[in-house]
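sorry for the late reply, my laptop died twice this morning and i had to redo everyting from scratch. anyway the thing you sent over, i finally got around to it. pasting the sequence first so we're on the same page, its 221 residues, then the predicted structure underneath. double check i copied it right bc i was rushing
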Amino acid sequence: MKKSRTLLIPFTLLLLFLTACNDNNSSTTSNTNAGEPKTASVKTGVKPEPDAEVAVIETADYGRIVIELYPNIAPQMVERFKKLIGEKFYDGTAIHRVDLQLGIIQGGDPNTKENNVAAYGMGNSPYPNVPAEFSDIPYERGTLGAARTQDVNGANCQWFITLKKQPAFDKKYTVFGRVIDGIKNAEVIMGAPTVAGTPRPSDKVVIKSVTLQPRASFPAQ
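ok and here's the structure:
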């Protein structure tokens, strides 16, 4: 039985769960809570240096979101993200979680290409997990983070964008980019109506494509 990958986030004395990707095999999944690392080293004092390429997310109904990537901060997560983009892994997926109170949107799950909403947030790529690459870059408006399991080394394919400061995430989830264009489009998505009692948008927020384009084509905002 597969277990969902989750982001464990303390928030007003509660544990909030952001679902992410599943483990690639049952043995790894079954051992998720046995002897897993609870902490990871944090890279400090390093200024983010944008990659030569940006990720351009084109949605079906909400316009474009452009993200610069930080390979000097999170080289393995950036490499994974770019690899999956090159394979068109994200094309046709959907933003499956929005939370106006926390200020987040989350996507990257291949299960969202289908109509089985019970499986949303539990999808994975065919590749191994990406180790933690934590840094002291704060989660604030426009930060791109890697969703993960309870294991700090449990990131894989899903990602989230914070639309306001979220210090509960700082040094606990890999930061690997920042929105440089289309932040208002992301905020509109965050405020989309949801199915009662869930963070899932009532109307599917489809990502038509994610492509890599030259960073020079998108001046800093």
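The chain has a mean pLDDT of 86.
thats about all i looked at so far, will dig more tmrw
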